[in-house]
């Protein structure tokens, strides 16, 4: 068992980040321990914050199909990405303010843990990542059990391009708020189209293509 696996249970990360994510996991575990459901009011609250349960198929497949009919394939992808990015930004601001967190790295660390607790995916951050408060920011990561790719696989569907647009959008939104710089994320490989993993890259839009190209050259990612 690696040091990473010993120190964290939700997020996999390079060893130097283990104490950070271990602390974030404890914070979120406490937050999600206070779950209250009141069907008579149509209300689900976690530590006083209202949440909504939605079937993953509805977001990953049905929503995309309905958007595609009106806005085309590219439009459907963009709308789902932007919707999720807005959710990630809003959630990040709420947690940062509620927990009075000011350090950008801790702000970021809370995101993947929250992301996993609410059922989007688990997160594996790769050692090539270099999160920082400037335009050289770069994050390479995997989302095992992405709800979007899982929805395709569980329904016997195969895509010809990546499908985890909401996964990408939410993580970009959370990290953008955490580091105070504009960020974009894209899925590079996707299980829904037959790849081994759902791998993403995140960077400032101005440097995105260059940093992704360098990452692919370094890791041999096709």
Give a quick rundown of the structure.
The protein has 222 residues and is of the alpha+beta class. It has 7 helices and 8 strands, in the order H-E-H-E-E-E-H-H-E-E-H-H-E-E-H.
What does this structure look like?
This protein has 222 residues and is of the alpha+beta class. The protein has a single domain (55-219), classed as Trafficking protein particle complex subunit 3 (Muramoyl-pentapeptide Carboxypeptidase, domain 2), CATH 3.30.1380.20. Helix content is 51%, strand content 14%. The chain contains seven helices and eight strands; from the N terminus they run αβαβββααββααββα. The strands form two sheets. The chain has a five-stranded mixed β-sheet, with helices on both faces. It has a three-stranded antiparallel β-sheet with strand order 2-3-4, with no helix packed on it. The radius of gyration is 17 Å and the shape is globular.
Q: Determine the number of helices (DSSP H or I, runs of at least 4 residues).
A: 7
Give the helix level as a range of percent.
Answer: 40-55%
What's the CATH H-level homologous superfamily?
Trafficking protein particle complex subunit 3
Number of domains: 1
Order of helices and strands: HEHEEEHHEEHHEEH
Most strands sheet: 5 strands, mixed
At the third CATH level, what is the topology name? Muramoyl-pentapeptide Carboxypeptidase, domain 2
CATH uppermost class = Alpha Beta
Low-confidence stretches: 1-5
β-strand number? 8
**Straight-line N-to-C gap:** 29 Å
Chain-averaged pLDDT: 95
